[in-house]
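Notes to self, Nif11 domain-containing protein:
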Amino acid sequence: MATIQPEGENLRKAVRWIAEEKKAGSTQSRQQLMEAAGLKFNLTPVEAEYLARSFKEIAG
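result:
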């Protein structure tokens, strides 16, 4: 399994938040969670793209 090692602190927080939301049983889709994380953690477009690409690779 691949390990995500994001560079920026906001990106790390976003990854952690998405994982926690999924673990808590969130009914939102992964895409919805990524969009919410982008807003919540003020991700740049490059960071948001990295986040989307990383989760896509993990999902397969």
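- The mean pLDDT is 84.
- The chain has one domain: 9-59.
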